[in-house]
Protein backbone atom coordinates (compact mmCIF):
# COMPACT_ATOMS: atom_id res chain seq x y z
CA UNK A 1 0.00 0.00 0.00
CA UNK A 2 2.87 2.38 0.85
CA UNK A 3 4.42 1.74 -2.55
CA UNK A 4 1.15 2.61 -4.30
CA UNK A 5 0.99 5.97 -2.44
CA UNK A 6 4.54 6.82 -3.46
CA UNK A 7 3.80 5.95 -7.09
CA UNK A 8 0.70 8.16 -7.09
CA UNK A 9 2.65 10.99 -5.50
CA UNK A 10 5.45 10.59 -8.04
CA UNK A 11 2.95 10.65 -10.91
CA UNK A 12 1.35 13.83 -9.53
CA UNK A 13 4.73 15.49 -9.19
CA UNK A 14 5.65 14.45 -12.73
CA UNK A 15 2.36 15.78 -14.13
CA UNK A 16 2.80 19.06 -12.26
CA UNK A 17 6.36 19.45 -13.53
CA UNK A 18 5.22 18.76 -17.11
CA UNK A 19 2.43 21.32 -16.76
CA UNK A 20 4.86 23.95 -15.46
CA UNK A 21 7.27 23.21 -18.29
CA UNK A 22 4.46 23.47 -20.86
CA UNK A 23 3.33 26.80 -19.40
CA UNK A 24 6.88 28.14 -19.38
CA UNK A 25 7.40 27.07 -22.98
CA UNK A 26 4.14 28.72 -24.07
CA UNK A 27 5.10 31.95 -22.29
CA UNK A 28 8.54 31.92 -23.92
CA UNK A 29 7.00 31.39 -27.36
CA UNK A 30 4.52 34.23 -26.77
CA UNK A 31 7.29 36.61 -25.68
CA UNK A 32 9.43 35.65 -28.69
CA UNK A 33 6.50 36.25 -31.04
CA UNK A 34 5.86 39.67 -29.48
CA UNK A 35 9.52 40.59 -29.92
CA UNK A 36 9.44 39.42 -33.54
CA UNK A 37 6.32 41.50 -34.19
CA UNK A 38 7.88 44.59 -32.59
CA UNK A 39 11.05 44.13 -34.64
CA UNK A 40 8.99 43.83 -37.82
CA UNK A 41 7.08 47.02 -36.99
CA UNK A 42 10.34 48.90 -36.43
CA UNK A 43 11.77 47.52 -39.67
CA UNK A 44 8.67 48.59 -41.60
CA UNK A 45 8.84 52.08 -40.06
CA UNK A 46 12.50 52.42 -41.05
CA UNK A 47 11.73 51.19 -44.56
CA UNK A 48 8.91 53.71 -44.87
CA UNK A 49 11.15 56.52 -43.66
CA UNK A 50 13.88 55.50 -46.09
CA UNK A 51 11.36 55.42 -48.94
CA UNK A 52 10.13 58.90 -48.02
CA UNK A 53 13.67 60.25 -47.96
CA UNK A 54 14.48 58.58 -51.30
CA UNK A 55 11.35 60.13 -52.85
CA UNK A 56 12.33 63.53 -51.50
CA UNK A 57 15.83 63.17 -52.93
CA UNK A 58 14.42 62.10 -56.30
CA UNK A 59 12.05 65.07 -56.41
CA UNK A 60 14.42 67.78 -55.23
CA UNK A 61 17.80 66.33 -56.09
CA UNK A 62 19.02 67.30 -52.62
CA UNK A 63 19.38 65.45 -49.34
CA UNK A 64 16.96 66.92 -46.79
CA UNK A 65 18.62 68.68 -43.88
CA UNK A 66 16.64 66.57 -41.42
CA UNK A 67 18.29 63.45 -42.82
CA UNK A 68 21.24 62.27 -40.78
CA UNK A 69 23.56 59.42 -41.53
CA UNK A 70 23.69 56.84 -38.81
CA UNK A 71 26.95 55.40 -40.08
CA UNK A 72 30.39 56.86 -39.95
CA UNK A 73 31.72 57.93 -43.32
CA UNK A 74 32.10 61.11 -45.30
CA UNK A 75 30.46 61.64 -48.65
CA UNK A 76 32.73 62.88 -51.41
CA UNK A 77 32.65 66.65 -51.77
CA UNK A 78 31.37 66.29 -55.34
CA UNK A 79 27.99 65.19 -53.94
CA UNK A 80 27.47 68.57 -52.34
What can you see in these coordinates?
This protein is mainly α and 80 residues long. The chain contains 1 helix and no strands. The protein has one helix at residues 2-60. It is rod-shaped, with a radius of gyration of 29 Å. The mean pLDDT is 85. Belongs to the remorin family. Keywords: Coiled coil. Pfam families: Remorin_C. Residues 2-65 form the Remorin C-terminal domain. This is Remorin C-terminal domain-containing protein.
Short description:
The protein is mostly helical and 80 residues long.
Blueprint of the fold:
Elements: H1 2-60
Instruction: Indicate the low-confidence ranges by residue numbers.
Output: none
From the alpha carbons, calculate the radius of gyration and give it in angstroms: 29 Å
Compute the number of helices: 1
Strand content: under 5%
Q: Distance between the terminal alpha carbons, to the nearest Å?
A: 91 Å
Computed structural class: mainly alpha
Kindly report the average pLDDT value.
85
What global shape is seen?
rod-shaped
The largest pleated sheet is described as:
none
Please report the total strand number as a whole number: 0
Question: How much helical structure, as a percent, in the residues?
Answer: over 70%
- Give the ordered list of helices and strands: H
Amino acid sequence: MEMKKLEVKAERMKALAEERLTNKLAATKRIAEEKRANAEVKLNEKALRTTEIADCIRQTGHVPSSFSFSFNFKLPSICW
